[in-house]
């Protein structure tokens, strides 16, 4: 059998402080290839910082990050960032560029793909997120949901092994949330390895393989969605769930 293990992501005992603020206090996580881990927890608990440390936008003070079982900390950080696609709450699209240019730009500039090929690749990704017909539009002419689907297409165009989502639907009008969540669910179904920071408890419950509940820089509970939602073990998680559900 051929090995299909590309994309298994592991963090071990990760610590990170901003000055005196000890934000990550020994985080462990393991996301097997092809699975989706949701990260939930109150504001300020360190969820966004965890994603930024896991793709080495910030270097951890302590701990290790492994991809496919191999530590990546000795590599050039750019390499890990290439292997992990990231989608933020704010879409960060270039306003003066067309949709297809937004998707093809990094392929051309960072991957050195010839312009025609980058454009063809971008159109294919736009097709997958249902927005090929908007290729020539500017971001301002799109709805927030469409902008976020463009941002997802842009990340996918780089052929990442893992995708991170940081509250990807939090800035969207309620009626636009569903379409983006459906796209994320499709992506999870298709076998992408994903780490999803979200307040969408329905998505968390129905799509993720594991859920991590963070509070004050530690993983307080982790397990299957059923375990966490139907049988929370700690008062902190019980309180959190009663606030958000
Ligand atoms: P969450 O995403 O769970 O809301 P964050 O990871 O954004 O939490 O923040 C965790 C803590 O780290 C907060 O106390 C926040 O103020 C602090 N923090 C986040 N980013 C920075 C930064 N760039 N500089 C200093 N402190 C930061
Ligand atoms: Mg955050």
UniProtKB/TrEMBL annotation:
Membrane topology: Peripheral membrane protein
Superkingdom in the source lineage: Bacteria
Gene3D superfamilies with a match to the protein in the record: P-loop containing nucleotide triphosphate hydrolases (3.40.50.300)
Entries under SUPFAM superfamilies matching the protein: P-loop containing nucleoside triphosphate hydrolases
Keywords, ordered alphabetically: Amino-acid transport, ATP-binding, Cell membrane, Membrane, Nucleotide-binding, Transport
ABC transporter domain boundaries: 9-241
GO molecular function: ABC-type amino acid transporter activity; ATP binding; ATP hydrolysis activity
One of the record's GO cellular component terms: plasma membrane
Compartments where found: Cell membrane
Main location: membrane
Family matches, as Pfam families: ABC_tran
Family: Belongs to the ABC transporter superfamily.
Protein's name according to its UniProt entry: Amino acid ABC transporter ATP-binding protein
Species: Arthrobacter terrae
